[in-house]
Amino acid sequence: DAGVIQSPRHEVTEMGQEVTLRCKPISGHNSLFWYRQTMMRGLELLIYFNNNVPIDDSGMPEDRFSAKMPNASFSTLKIQPSEPRDSAVYFCASSSQGALNSPLHFGNGTRLTVT
Amino acid sequence: TQLLEQSPQFLSIQEGENLTVYCNSSSVFSSLQWYRQEPGEGPVLLVTVVTGGEVKKLKRLTFQFGDARKDSSLHITAAQPGDTGLYLCAGAPGNDYKLSFGAGTTVTVRA
């Protein structure tokens, strides 16, 4: 079991640039979550997909953020244009039944720094 | 305001000592989960407590769910340096899928 795979591990970019974060969930898991972690706000849920369909994106900060899940084995989180306040660690997590009924498996995150 | 309040925020103890971390809320949860996160990694699930008053043990870790299902505690007996990490509680009020996390307790166990 390779676990949830995220790339890149680190991303440093300048304000205004487009950033794309990638996630490969665990095979067979039908729920995928994107979280953001900062010292100030802790772990915040950004968006939740079930069977590749976005179910709840109410946590997405603003229109600069978008997420897609074109198939069961791949998801992206895009920020365009990026701003310094977007600096955080972004986690992707997957589960087989949704957050309450089975454990969330997290990737190792992408540390984003926007200068 | 956090849905789940964790205390203390930081805890530094000597190897062999005991410690307790608390997770409190004014909301009722169908279940609460505890995760541990190490630097540079994602959180890893330790346990899920489901029944009010439930006590679960995982080696030297003891987890308790409050009778009213609004709070939980994690007790570590004879802490080891390997227990060092960020401990997070998480839950969703009612039967929502939106898992909310507490801010976490950073535990440091000194050798």
Report on this model:
The complex is a heterodimer of chains A (115) and B (111). Chain A is mostly beta strands and 115 residues long. Chain A contains no helices and eleven strands. In chain A, strands 2, 4, 5, 6, 9, 10 and 11 form a seven-stranded mixed β-sheet that branches. The radius of gyration of chain A is 13 Å and the shape is globular. The model of chain A has no long low-confidence stretch (mean pLDDT 93). Chain B has 111 residues and is an all-beta fold. Chain B has strands at 5-7, 10-14, 19-24, 29-37, 44-49, 55-58, 61-65, 71-76, 85-93, 100-101, 105-110. In chain B, strands 2, 4, 5, 9, 10 and 11 form a six-stranded mixed β-sheet that branches. In chain B, strands 1-3-8-7-6 form a five-stranded antiparallel β-sheet, with no helix packed on it. In chain B, strand 9 and strand 10 (100-101) form a beta hairpin. The model of chain B has no long low-confidence stretch (mean pLDDT 93). The interface between A and B is medium-sized, with 21 and 23 residues.
Summary?
With 115 residues, chain A is an all-beta fold. Chain A has strands at 5-7, 10-13, 19-24, 31-38, 42-50, 53-56, 65-71, 74-79, 88-95, 105-106, 110-114.
- Provide the low-confidence segments of chain A as ranges: none
Query: How far is it from the N-terminal to the C-terminal residue of chain A, by CA?
Result: 36 Å
**Helix count of chain B?**
0
Radius of gyration of chain B (Å): 13 Å
Key words describing this protein structure:
heterodimer, A: 115 residues, mainly beta, 7-stranded mixed beta sheet, 4-stranded antiparallel beta sheet, 11 strands, globular, B: 111 residues, 6-stranded mixed beta sheet, 5-stranded antiparallel beta sheet, 0% helix
Tell me the layout of helices and strands.
The complex is a heterodimer of chains A (115) and B (111).
Chain A: E1 5-7, E2 10-13, E3 19-24, E4 31-38, E5 42-50, E6 53-56, E7 65-71, E8 74-79, E9 88-95, E10 105-106, E11 110-114
Chain B: E1 5-7, E2 10-14, E3 19-24, E4 29-37, E5 44-49, E6 55-58, E7 61-65, E8 71-76, E9 85-93, E10 100-101, E11 105-110
Parallel strand pairs in B: 2-11
Antiparallel strand pairs in B: 1-3, 3-8, 4-5, 4-9, 6-7, 7-8, 9-10, 9-11
